[in-house]
Design goal:
- This protein is an all-alpha fold and 50 residues long.
- It is built from 1 helix and no strands.
- It has a domain of 27 residues.
- The longest helix has 47 residues.
- The termini are far apart.
Length: 50
Amino acid sequence: MDKRNFLYLFYGLTLAWGLLAAYLFILMQRSRKLRAEVDRVKRMVGDNER
């Protein structure tokens, strides 16, 4: 096998892992924001019930 093929494979896998890491980071950020919003709504509902 040509050495260039391994280089392209390395670049492709590095790009794939980088995209996966970025996607997971974005999902974690959205999850945090959503959790904070749910907590805020729970507090609002709890305040209105009293």
